[in-house]
Structures are given as C-alpha cells and as structure tokens.
C-alpha cells in the first residue's frame, strides 16, 4: 500500500490484512499461545516463538493503528491504563513529571499513587499553565490530554513540544488518530484508550502507544517492559479491534457531525447554562482545536444544565436513547452524571457528560428536548 493512501482506505482494508492461508479477505483469528518447531528444533516461523511477544493478530491491529497515526511503531496493550503505566514506569526515582490536571480521573489517581511510591516529583497543572510550568519545572516527562475528559479543554501540542525537551506524551483518546495525529504536532508518544472511539463498539478493552522515535531509550524501555511484564493484548481482542477499525473514519465522521449539532442545540436551550465542546466558537480552545483537529471535533461533550444536582439527575433519568453508562466513543450514545461517579474530583453537580453515537441526529435532539422540559 502506498504511503499517500488516505485513512479511510487504510482502515477499510485493515492496512492490507488478509488470510494468506485460505485467501480470505478477512484476517484469520489465531489464538495459539505457542508455535511449532521442526525436527531440528528450528522455528517454523522465525517471528513466532510465544504469544506474550508474538501474535499475528496483534501485529495486524498495530499496523492499522500505526498507519492511521503515521507513526514509526505502535504497541497495543490490554487497556489504556496499562499503556499509561508502561510510559511512567520508564521514569527513574527522583525524576519530575508534569501532568495536566482535570483529565481522566483514572490517570490522575494512578499517577499520584505511582509517583508517591516511586519518589517521582509529580507536578499537576491546569491546561492554561502548562507552558509556564514546562519552562520552570524542567521535567523528564510531560503528559497532556486533548481534548480533555470531561472538561474538553484543548491543549496546543506544538506549543508544549516547543517549550520543553522532556518526553511529551499526548492522550488523544477523545480525538482518535482520525481527527488528530499528535506526532505530527511534536508529540514524542501518543496514547489512546482504544476501548473508546478506536474500537467504538463497547466490547474491547485495549490501549495503544505510538511513536516516531523508534530507537529512543524510553521507547525501547517500553518495548522491553511490555514483553517481560506481559502487558499484551490477546489475539481475540486484537482481531475484534481490527474488525472494528475498518469503519473508524466513518464512525468518527458521523459522531462528530452529531455531536456538533447536539452541542449547538443544547447551547441555545433555555434549560442549559453552558456546553463544553471544541467545535463551538464559544469554546475557549476552539481556535487551537481548529488547528490540530481535522474533519470534526469528536463525540465527547459536557453539558451544564441549569439548577442543582437533582435537576441534572432528573434530566439524565428522563433520557431514553442516551444510555446511562460509563465510557465514551461507542456507536451508541451514552450519558453520565459525573458528580455521582466522581464526587471527590470537584466536578460540578449539574454537569452531564455526553458521548454522542451514530444514531439519527433528529432522534437524539428530540430525546434531549423531552428530557429538558
């Protein structure tokens, strides 16, 4: 496949994956944990020894993601948090890590515990203060999330990359590689929870790291750690992920269109105080988002309804098409009252996080219309 082939084509063809044994246009699922040797005890295939490091299904999924990200190398992990942990485990004791605050709570909670245990100096800072902090703290690692979850804050990746010599890691889960190729804006490593929009069907748990610094020391440490610690995605999950990614650009396009229309509708509604969505001109990070998001602004938005916690819960309870469940990026629309889930994070009691799916936008708007009245 030529290098100039577009993401939609890469995804639809699963980066050229087929089943050479049968000639099938769909890659086969190979669940074996170990591989055959001949009578002389040579491997039948030199690249397959043991499934903790060797899996055709894993390689196929990684190749699709690598091509979509325009990266030199991509590694899949059994969850997004496993991917994040692999990055932070490269830090030596005494190092400094700057981490954006107000991001996915699982990341914040884990990094706090890990850095305290490892005597790593953790500096958590708001998106607006990242540039100044990177200049003053002299970190070894900078970790940002754009757009952030659930505040939808947008960080200028290139500006941060230019402001620090530290390893810059970008969690671009809400954007997916379809909308933002973080490496092209100066990130050293881009991370996604592939559980979310990349898979998009709420049936696979996976994480991914990609880089254009294949030979860098930190990347080789991640490679070795993944293999020896066994943080490997299973072949069935990798096969499902490859299957799902064939429609990734189509899903992202539809979700972004739906989210944009819903955000505009909600912002104009009398029962809504504010809407956080990068696609809105009123959004603080809109201009940055326009520079580094191409083809839409993603499926995630947050809504501040007028009133109290009880008013927000009433709206959530009345929604019929938006399923009350945790996660984002699936084909089905989801809604979550964040304060109920994470009251300790200071999230407003009237904030509702919304993951917009691929349903008919008229139906989605009508559902919110009846819920807000």
Notes on the protein architecture:
The chain has 373 residues and is of the alpha/beta class. The protein has two domains: 7-245, 3-Layer(aba) Sandwich (Aspartate Aminotransferase, domain 2), CATH 3.40.640.10; 248-372, Aspartate Aminotransferase, domain 1. 37% of the residues lie in helices and 15% in strands. The chain has 14 helices and twelve strands. The protein has a seven-stranded mixed beta sheet with strand order 1-7-6-5-4-2-3, with helices on both faces. The protein is globular, with a radius of gyration of 21 Å. The chain starts with 6 loop residues before the first helix and ends with a helix.
Write a concise synopsis of the structure shown:
With 373 residues, this protein is α/β, with parallel strands linked by helices.
Name the CATH class of the largest domain. Answer: Alpha Beta
Contiguous runs where pLDDT drops below 50 for at least 5 residues: none
- Rg computed from alpha carbons, rounded to a whole number of angstroms: 21 Å
| General shape | globular
Helix content: 25-40%
Structural class: alpha/beta
Terminal Cα separation, in Å?
Answer: 53 Å
The CATH architecture classification of the largest domain is 3-Layer(aba) Sandwich
Secondary-structure element order, as H and E?
HHEHEHEHEHEHEEHHHEHEHEEHEH
On the 0-100 scale, what is the average pLDDT? 96
Return the domain count: 2
> How large is the count of helical segments?
14
Spatial strand sequence of the major β-sheet:
1-7-6-5-4-2-3
Largest sheet: 7 strands, mixed
Number of strands: 12
Give me the CATH fold name of the largest domain.
Aspartate Aminotransferase, domain 2
- Range of strand content: 15-25%
CATH superfamily of the largest domain: Type I PLP-dependent aspartate aminotransferase-like (Major domain)
């Amino acid at each position: 496949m030529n290098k100039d082939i577009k993401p939609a084509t890469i995804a639809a063809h699963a980066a050229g994956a087929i089943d050479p044994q049968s000639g099938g246009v769909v890659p086969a699922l190979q669940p074996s944990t170990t591989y055959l040797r001949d009578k002389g005890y040579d491997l039948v295939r030199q690249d397959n020894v043991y499934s903790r490091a060797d899996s055709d299904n894993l390689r196929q999924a990684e190749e699709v993601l690598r091509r979509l990200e325009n990266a030199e190398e991509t590694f899949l992990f059994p969850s997004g948090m496993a991917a994040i942990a692999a990055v932070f485990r490269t830090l030596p004791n005494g190092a400094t890590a700057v981490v954006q605050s107000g991001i996915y709570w699982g990341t914040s909670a884990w990094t706090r515990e890990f850095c305290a245990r490892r005597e790593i100096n953790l500096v958590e800072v708001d998106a607006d203060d990242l540039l100044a902090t990177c200049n003053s703290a002299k970190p070894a690692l900078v970790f940002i999330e754009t757009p952030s979850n659930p505040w939808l804050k947008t960080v200028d990746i290139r500006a941060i990359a230019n402001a620090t010599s530290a390893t810059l890691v970008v969690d671009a889960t809400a954007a997916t590689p379809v909308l933002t190729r973080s490496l092209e804006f100066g990130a050293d490593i881009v991370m996604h929870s592939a559980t979310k929009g990349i898979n998009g069907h709420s049936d696979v748990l996976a994480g991914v790291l990609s880089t254009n610094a294949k030979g860098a020391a930190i990347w080789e440490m991640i490679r070795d750690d993944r293999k020896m610690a066994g943080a490997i995605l299973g072949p069935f999950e990798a096969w499902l992920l490859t299957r799902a990614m064939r429609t990734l650009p189509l899903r992202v396009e539809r979700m972004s269109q739906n989210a944009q229309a819903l955000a505009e509708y909600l912002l104009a509604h009398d029962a809504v105080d504010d809407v956080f969505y990068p696609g809105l001109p009123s959004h603080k990070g809109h201009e940055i988002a326009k520079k580094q998001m191409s083809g839409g602004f993603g499926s995630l938005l947050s809504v501040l309804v007028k009133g109290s916690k009880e008013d927000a819960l009433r709206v959530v309870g009345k929604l019929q098409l938006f399923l009350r469940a945790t996660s984002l990026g699936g084909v089905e629309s989801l809604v979550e009252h964040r304060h109920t889930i994470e009251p300790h994070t200071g999230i407003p009691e009237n904030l509702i996080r919304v993951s917009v799916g691929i349903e008919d936008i008229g139906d989605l708007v009508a559902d919110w219309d009846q819920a807000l009245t």
